Amino acid sequence: MRFALIGAGANGTVHARLIEALDDDLVAVVDHDLDRAQQLADQYGARAYATAASAYAEVDAVSICLPSALHADAAIEALYAGKHVLVEKPVDITLAAADRLIAVQQETGLTVSVISQRRFQEPVRTIKDAVDSGALGRITSGIVESAFYRPQSYYDGDGWRGTLAIDGGGALMNQGIHALDLLVWMLGKPVQVSARTGQLAHENIEVEDVAAATITFESGAIGVLLASTAAYPGSPVRLSIHGDRGTATMDDDRLVALTTAGAVGEGLGLVGERSAVELAHLAQYRDFVGAVTEGRAPAVGLADGRRSLATVLAVYESARRGRPVELDE
Fold it and tell me: Counting C-beta atoms within 10 Å of the first and last residue's C-beta, which end of the chain has fewer, N or C?
């Protein structure tokens, strides 16, 4: 499959490596900074373009690695050009933008997948299998922690990071959304959120660097979330899912505990080897290519991206109002 990479920044560099690892062809790199596009394109034998439209004749699919608020519009442009789309998280920063994209995807019938690579990690999939098989019994609660650290230079280095208009949020929208996505994937439909956010360790940003929330799900299960970019020196994502017959925990990309009360849990075992996030990223790329070539839905679609975005926005709204909010608000 021939790919165009839209955005030649740090994320674009990662995605270029992934496309090469797939043995697919990165044939175009697009960036408004043509010199930056050319520098990345030269590494992979691709051509550099300043606009996406000029690259579309060469490609079958696009990988969108732009700042968050530009995701939906770039994906819509690609769909109308007849290209399949893999878009970085979040799907965008507003539900209105996400819904525009969903409508165009339904109109064109092309494949769109939202990056949620942690779903493809082996320990995560083992926990999801335990949830779905009933090995943990009725799911009662979940806890996820994304306690990262970003120095002030991280926000100072790009004009859009830490802004409401382009980044859309901070530690949760940009980093913690991956962890939140896992909680929502495991526990189901969120219905109510109670949250607090803070800007505690960074200057000259418009967004939070700490967010904490309790989330009530349609099943009655309760989730607890922490997202931070102010937790020096930073810790790996930690996820625990609890049921009335078992508990499963991932820490440092390893399944460190899987305890069940009955025989239904036997044989699930522990995953001892590290499951690297970049390998999971590659697995999502393989799923996307498979979805296009096989004419099936991708494992992570726009509805998944929208649900995670809606939950992020509910966290922000609850923190702003100082009270719980319903997701349908």
Answer: C
* Lookup: tokens for 183: 């909680």
Say if residue 184 is in the same domain as residue 320. Answer: yes
What is the distance of C-alpha 101 from the center of its chain? 17
State how far the Cα of 75 lies from the Cα of 199, in Å rounded to an integer: 31
| Chain segment 273-308, per-residue pLDDT in tens | 444 678 999 999 999 999 999 999 999 999 999 999
Q: Token digits for 258? A: 């899987």
- CA distances, 118 to each of 7, 134, 185 (Å): 22, 22, 11
Determine the residue type at 211: A
Does residue 90 form part of some domain?
yes
Q: Identify whether 288 is part of a domain.
A: no
Report pTM. 0.94
Region for 186 from its dihedrals, namely left if φ exceeds 0, alpha if ψ lies in -120 to 50, beta otherwise: alpha
209, 131: one domain:
yes
Residue 108 included in any domain: yes
Domain stops at, among 67, 95, 115: 115
Q: How far is CA 272 from CA 132, 250, 259, 275, 294, in A?
A: 22, 11, 15, 9, 33
Which residue carries 């926990």 as its tokens? Answer: 127
DSSP state of 241: E
Q: Which residues of 178-201 are buried (b: 16+ CB within 10 A; e: fewer)?
A: bbbbbbbbbbbebebbbbebebeb
The average confidence (pLDDT) of the chain is 94
Of 83, 131, 97, the C-alpha closest to 243 is 131
Sign, CA torsion 89/93/95/100: negative
Return the SS3 of 192: strand
Query: What is the mean pLDDT of the segment spanning 39-50?
Result: 97
CA distance 191 to 30: 39
- Domain hosting 305: range is 118-275+301-326
HSE-up (13 A, CA, CB side) for residue 95? 14
In this prediction, residue 226 has a pLDDT band, given cuts at 50, 70 and 90, of very high
Residue type, position 252, single letter: D
Same domain (yes/no): 110, 124: no
